[in-house]
Structures are given as structure tokens and as C-alpha cells.
């Protein structure tokens, strides 16, 4: 345990020397900049939705005799008990905390350290007064804590409570009678007791938030293709307005092999983040690796027959004879065609000037066949398909929808006479749009995964395509 504590401290100390990057993403990782408003929301939601407040009340009310009285925290010879500083404590009995108002959260980011977190709440106390009858009091309390941001043993960002104190505000007597000396007793009692009761609430809040921070670094399935594992590439950084996480996406095949591609030669110039917004920067590298996974899985290959295209798309030797008659040799008209497309090299994705495009190199074997006969090879083409990619974010990923922009072909080989393959480009474009592009869009339903950080939803984010990256920005 001491070595583990030293490890955490060394990370925190090292992190304290680091300042946020100045707009350059040196690595190829996914960059997440989470606004302090989102952290505040996560803390507030943990108090609203979880059992934290009820757990605190349960802990308090489990003391049967309450805070004061013969069996209470100050009974039995305590500093403020009968015989102590005040001899009037026994006139009160069973004073308990029975209400805890939902705290208001306020926080301030501390660059190089973590977070200054304040929870402002009201505590309701019920008991019996010195003259019998119900006694009800309410006290305003500010729980102030300093929280460091570091890295857990699992390699996830983690918030660690370093210091916690409570400041007692105005105490109101709602019902019953309480002489002034007893009022002072109650005040001093709360001053001593509340830190031990309410500071564990901060620890519980941090536990919930740390679970949310941990989900950023997880395994995301890519359908039947494989998965993306998000890991923390460097220590978290913190500025006055946001926490920055440099997240390394590792793309793996179903077999567990890492799909790796060359890194971009230049760092990505990340645009500055405006206040009250959160950002995720998705690098070109992630697009290329996902398409590399599609290619190695054979998902980019297709055999196109007349059944796969509408009747208005020509796919017979008659149609081909009208374009390149010399390619058919002595083949009779009216035979059906089979186009066998194989992608043997990785596609190349481009992100620049507000546009996303992908270039797919394909070998196209053109064959003719009878329904009961063996296909007969006619010629082979080397094709390059350039497709536009429309990008749309959801809560968990970037969705891609492709459309063919242009297609160029060269003749690789022919079993009849050589010919100018450029005459086939318009015809082949019709076939590709009808049969190949829809298949690609189905396969791309897996999308490009986004890391999930503090439940920030990027579904309605503004999307900007910069050089070698896509930037998603959402208002907090």
C-alpha cells in the first residue's frame, strides 16, 4: 500500500508541473476537453439520482439517542456533557439530524491540482426541548473540500479528496423553546460533529463521478469487426475552465490483433475551446484504422450480379458491347455480367478544408456467365473510387454516410483486345452507386466510436472538419 500511495502522489506531483497544451495535439489520440460546468452537473446529478443523501441520513439516525442526551455523542462525560463545560445538556434529549436539503454545488478548477468543491446545504434537527414538546432547528452548512485529479491504478482519471471542512452558517429555531445557553451548546455540538457526518458525503459523490470518469476508458465493440479500446495516453491536464484528457484509441480485430496505421507526420492544430463548451477531437488516424479493419475483414469486397442492381442499370454483354466492343471478342450478346470487386490495399481517408473524403483502390474483374455455366473472364480493371463522407454525431459515435464523387479506371489485363478503359467509367459509376455504395453504408453502421466522458452527450454537437481531425463542440 505505501508504494501504491507513493505512485499516486508522484503522479499528482508530476501533474502539478504540467500546463494544458496550447492548441497542438502532438499525439494521434482522441482529445476530450470537458468543461467545468459538466463536472458540476455530474456532481449535482450524483446527489439527485443516487442514494447518497439517504445514506448520510441513515448513518446519522442510526445513533439511537441522537447527537445529545445521555447516550448521545456528547453524553457520558464528554466535553459538553453534564459536568462538562455546560451543565444543562441533559435538559435536551434525542436531538437528531432528520433532514438534509439537496446541496447546491459550486466548484472552481485549480490548474495544476484539481478542484475546489463546495456543497451548500441545510440540516434539519428534531428533538425534545428542555420543557418537553417538539424542538425543530435548521442550520445552514457549507461543506468545503479540495479535490486532486490524478490517475487510478486502472489508468483512469480519478478525483481524490485531500481536505474537507464545514462552515456553520445561520441556525434557525423553527419550533419549540431553547434558552440561549442551550443554543450555544447546539451550535458547538454541530461545529464538532458535522465534518464527520457530511465529509463522507463528498467521498460518496466523488465515487459516483469517478465511475463516470472511468467509463471514458473502456472497450467499445465495432459490430462483428472488432473493438476500440480507449486508454489514457498522458496525465490529465487542468485549466481554469476545463479538464483535458488525451485518450489513446487502440483498434483491435475480432482475433485481438491491433490494427495499426502510420501516424500523421504533423501534429493536429486544435482550435481553442470557448467557455461553457466541451470538445472531443477525433483524429484522422481513427478513421483510417476503422477502414483498415473493414478492409482486412473483407467487408469492402463485393460480387455484383444483375440481381443486386435495378433493371435500369445495364449489366449484360449487350450493354458492354455498346461501350467497348473490342473487349468481348466472340462472346454473344445478352449474357449476364459478374463484377468481382476486391480491395487489397487499405483505403485512404482525408479530412481537410471542411470536407471528408475516402479513396478506395479496387481490382475489378469483369466476367460473363450463363445461369448454369461457369463464369468466363473478360478483363480486369484497376479502379480508384473517391467518395464523399457525410458525418453526423450521436451520443456514442460519429456516423458516416458515403456517396460516390468520381471513379477512375485503367485496364490491367484483357482476354480479348486492349481498349481505353476510360469509356467504362460512367457505366461503372452507375453500377457502383446502385450496388456497392449501399453495401458500404450498411457496413459503416458501426461508426467511429467516441469516448464517453461524464455523460456528455455529443448528439447535438457542432461539427467542424479541420486538417487531419474532426472537432465536436457542445454547449454545457
Automatic annotation (TrEMBL):
PANTHER family: BPI FOLD-CONTAINING FAMILY B MEMBER 3, BPI FOLD-CONTAINING FAMILY B MEMBER 4-RELATED. Residues 274-474 form the Lipid-binding serum glycoprotein C-terminal domain. May have the capacity to recognize and bind specific classes of odorants. May act as a carrier molecule, transporting odorants across the mucus layer to access receptor sites. May serve as a primary defense mechanism by recognizing and removing potentially harmful odorants or pathogenic microorganisms from the mucosa or clearing excess odorant from mucus to enable new odorant stimuli to be received. One of its GO terms (molecular function) is lipid binding. GO terms for cellular component: cytoplasm; extracellular region. The keyword Signal applies. The gene is BPIFB3. Residues 1-23 form the signal peptide. InterPro entries: Bactericidal_perm-incr_a/b_dom, BPI_fold-BPI/LBP, Lipid-bd_serum_glycop_C, Lipid-bd_serum_glycop_N. Belongs to the BPI/LBP/Plunc superfamily. BPI/LBP family. It comes from Ailuropoda melanoleuca (Giant panda). Residues 33-275 form the Lipid-binding serum glycoprotein N-terminal domain. This is BPI fold-containing family B member 3. Keywords: Disulfide bond, Glycoprotein, Secreted, Signal. It is found in: Secreted. Its main location: secreted. It holds the Pfam family LBP_BPI_CETP_C.
